[in-house]
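Team,

Forwarding the record for the chain on the shared tracking sheet. I've put the sequence and predicted structure together so nobody has to dig through attachments.
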Amino acid sequence: MTSLNPIILLIIFAVLFITAAVVGFLLYKIISAQMVKNNSLALSNHELQIHSLITPLKDSLEKFESHINDIEKARVGAYAGLSEQVKSLLETQYHLRKETQHLVSALKKPQVRGRWGEIQLQRVVELAGMLENCDFFQQQSATLSHSDSFTFLRPDLLIKLPGNKNIIVDAKVPLSSFLESLENQDEQIQKQKLLDHARHIREHIRKLSQKNYWEQFTPTPEFVILFLPGETFFSAALETDPGLIELGVEKQVIIATPTTLIALLKSVAYSWRQENLAQNAAHISELGKELSKRLTLFRENFIAVGERLEKTVESYNKLIGTFESRVLVTARKFQQLNDGKETTLEIISPISQSPRKILIEDEKL
């Protein structure tokens, strides 16, 4: 066997290789086209499935976005309304601060403080249930005579007690130093102003004691009530000067705040109620005695009328007997002589009932 030329073998091998490559390429193209077609159909189905899943989620997201937009609009409106309210609150606070400053400035004037104290005193009396011109008098005046002059006294309140007794109340409002202590931030100045506040109350206690109200409005207990229209005024003074109560007792001046004065006035109102009950009981007793006397007199007169009626009936019956035995007999004889006929005269019946007597177990009535 003759051997082939290597070049021919190389050419044959190359042709076979190229043929195999072309066939493989053609098979690859055919298989790839089939796979692409299958993948396209699968992808289309997958897209439909994904679309069916995404559509509800999309709708929900759109609704959520719409709800978020509504909330944002409501928030913007609420924020605008809140801004207006805050602005109004700031304006109100400004006006309130301004009015408070005016009030503080007004209370620094003695005339305004005095009038405010009188109003607070009247309010306390009303809360206690007291009646003006019945349980108390406002601005009751008296004149205190000296050797060469006269002093005109006019307490703020005169409380009436049972038994024609009186209690004197004088309102004082020492606020200037107390307000200055609140306005200052320095601790030393605050302490000094509170000391001045307590000193002013001490001065009022001494002045009230010197007036001797109990000598002019008699009968009156030998003390006068100093009314302070605020609990804080008295407590602040007591913190710096605890001896104010002892000084008041010594000078016959009792310091009272709205709370303690209401308690005192409630006690006075209760005593008035008890006094009225006692007076009503005494009046009822007098009316009972008078009614008993009148019932006794009425019974006596009634018995006398009954006795007279009984005697009248007795006389009436006697008169009938006399009429029948004396008058009728003669009248019948007279008729017989006149026409020979006897006429029957009607017989008058006597009264058989007697007046009923009053039966009372207690003969003392």
